[in-house]
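Risk register update: the risk of archive-format incompatibility is retired. Evidence:
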Amino acid sequence: MPKTAPATIPCAVWALGFVSMLTDISSEMVHSLLPLFLVSTLGASALVVGLIEGLAESTALVVKVFSGALSDYWGQRKGLAVAGYTLSVLTKPVFPLASSVTMVLAARFVDRLGKGVRDAPRDALVADITPASIRGAAFGLRQALDTVGAFLGPLLAAALMLLWANDFRLVFWVAVLPAVLALALMVFAVHEPRSLAHTVSKHPITRANLRRMGTPYWSVVAVGTLFGLARFSEAFLILRAYETGIAMALVPLVMVAMNLVYAASAYPFGKLSDRVNQRQLLAVGLLLLVLADGVLASSMHWAAVLGGVALWGMHMGITQGLLATMVAATAPPDLRGTAYGVYNLLGGVALFAASALAGLLWSQWGAQATFLASAAWGAVALWLLLHQRPRAD
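Archived output:
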C-alpha cells in the first residue's frame, strides 16, 4: 500500500500566526515601556503597576469564556476574532495621549478586552482546522510566530527610544501601524469553513455541558490554574532589569531576550509534545519557572537577570502551546470554544491574584520577596502536578 503523505499545517494557521506576530509587535512596543512610563512619567508605584497588569490580563482571560461559548453557539469563529482585533486597534492611540494612570488603566482594560474576545475563537479555529496528529506542531507554530512579534516589538521600542531620546509617546504612536496591518490581514487573509462541523443547539454554558467535558479536561484546567498562580505579569521582569541600573532605553531588550528564547523553543517543543508524555513535559516547564524565579531573586547583576529571563522564556515555550493542545485533545469538539474560555477564565483569576500579590510584596519587601514567593508556589504546583493521577472517564 502507498504511504500516506504526512499532514501539513493549514495555510489559515500560518495566516493566524502572522496576524498574532503583527499584533504582538504593536502590543509589546507599548507593554515593554508601559511599566517605566507609569513609574517615571505618571508617578505610579510598583503596587499600582501590578494591579493594572493583573486587572488587564485577567480581564482578557475572563472574557474568553463568553467569546468561546458564542463561537460554539454561532458556529463561526472569525467574526469574533475580527471584533477582538478591532477593539485592540482602537485603544492604541490612547497610550500616547494618556495624562493619568486612569487613562492607561482604561486603555489597558479595553485592549485586553479585545484580546479576550479574539483568543478563544482563534484557538478553537486552529484546533478545528488542524489534524489531531499535528495539533501540537500547529499550536507551537502559531505561538512561535506570535512570540517573534513579542521580541521584535521591544527591540523596535528600544531602538526608537535611543533614537528619540526616551520619548515614550512618540514610540507609542508608531505602535499603531502594525496593529492596523494585523487587523487587515485577519479580515482579508484568514478564511474559515462556511460552517463548523460541530455546533451546539443551545447556549453551551450549562451544567450538563460542563460535566460532559470530563475529568481529563478538568485535569488540564487544574494544571493551567496552578501555572497562573505560580506566574505573575512579565512587567515585573522589566522592573527587575531597571533595578540593575540598565539604561532606560535598553530595558525593553530584556523582553527581547525572553521572547527570543520563547519563539525559538515554542515550535520544537510543540512538535515534541505530539510524541512524548505531555504531563511530564509540563513538569519540566514548571521546574524551569522555579529555577528562573530563584535566579532572579538571587542577584541584581545584569547577567543573572538575563539568565533568569532566558529560563522564563524557555518555560513559556514549553508550556503555552502544550496547554492549548491538551485542551483541544480533552474537550468535546462541539464545545472547544467554551472549553478554551473556561480554561482561561480560571487562569485569569489566578494571574490577577499572582500579579496583585507580586506588586504588594515588591512594594513592602522588594523584588527578592516577590520572586522567592513565586518560586515557593511554583515548587508546590510542581509537586501537585507530579502527584496528580488523572482518571480516564
